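Figure 2 data, in text form.
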Amino acid sequence: MASEYQHTRSALPESAAVAQEAGFAILTRSPVDPVARVHDRSPVLVPADQVLQWLDPALAGREAVALAGTSTAAKLHGWRVSDAAKRVAYEGAGCIQAVA
């Protein structure tokens, strides 16, 4: 089964990434529940109110990841969705509807 996650706050967190002219990489970390039950990695999620601080070029890499913390990821709620959600060509409301 695929999984869908939703954040509980109205101000959604941002996914942390490193971008260069040639492309970009999404930063990941060890997951916390509920992501840890399904995946071995989780994107670094930066709280919306800390994005500008997180983007400060004077902030060291490890400090930036620590600033993001795990509290934002811990606020995610997860549920099972159809395996059809794994297919790139599949679109529609069925992608996020919970299945038993």
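Caption note: The mean pLDDT is 75.
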